[in-house]
Design a protein that fits this description.
Structural class: alpha/beta
Number of domains: 2
Order of helices and strands: HEHEHEHEEHEHEHEEEHEHH
CATH architecture of the largest domain: 3-Layer(aba) Sandwich
CATH class of the largest domain: Alpha Beta
Number of helices: 10
Largest sheet: 9 strands, mixed
CATH superfamily of the largest domain: Periplasmic binding protein-like II
CATH topology of the largest domain: D-Maltodextrin-Binding Protein, domain 2
Number of strands: 11
Distance between the termini: 73 Å
Radius of gyration: 24 Å
Amino acid sequence: MKKKINAKGLQVMLICISIFLITSTMALAEKLTINGSTTVLPIAQKVAEAYMKDNPDMEIAVSGGGSGNGIKGIIDGTTDIGDSSRFIKDKEVALAMEKGTYPVPFRVAYDCIIPVVHPTNGVKDLTLAQLKDIYQGNVKNWKELGGPDAKIVVVSRDTSSGTYEVWESKVMKKERVYPGALLQASNGAVAQTVASTKGAIGYIGIGYINDAVKPVKVDGIVGSEETTLNGIFPVSRPLFMFTRGWPEGKVVEFINYVLNPEKGQKLVKDAGFVPLY
């Protein structure tokens, strides 16, 4: 009877030790949160997966929500890294300084915003002026642009999107998109809507181009890695990751990983975007 009690006691003790070791390991695991631009999201996800594989003691949570939310998270201290497809605004800098912090930008990739239509649409090239007319609602039928006799369905990003703000600046020249446009919360949602709507036109980052949509030239220029890097494509931009002050510890290690030509920058290209080098 005594041997049985000892055996049970040993079993309980081993279970307790196992639980302690597991919880201790979990407690020691470092955590990193990344939030913001849906354009930068595929890059952040790919790099995070690779980084965690190289650093098993690190847990990284990556989410979208828009560039504005990423920068807001940096200002409020609710995220470690804020992804953004636009640069920070003066009013956001002022708000950050009021709260005792200063967002630091790191350019991590380049992108171009490409107009896309349904694959059955014969239109191959549009000027910046024509795109502006479409998004202001001044041109309503594709036949006015050499396309089919079909109503134009305008698909745009919502106003919290960095992609929208770049489009508003470079294409709309600060004019607002007309109220009849279908607003989508992400690049993926825009691509999906255009792919399923014959008369639709939208705009998405180069990393979201797929066979379900047809990219359109702008002023005769194809959106590509080459035309993005040399600045020829009219709607190009850098992509950023912001940190809350100058990064330290786990944050600076991750940023360095993203910027590493042999690691993060290769993953930028794998994600369909344009690497820095």
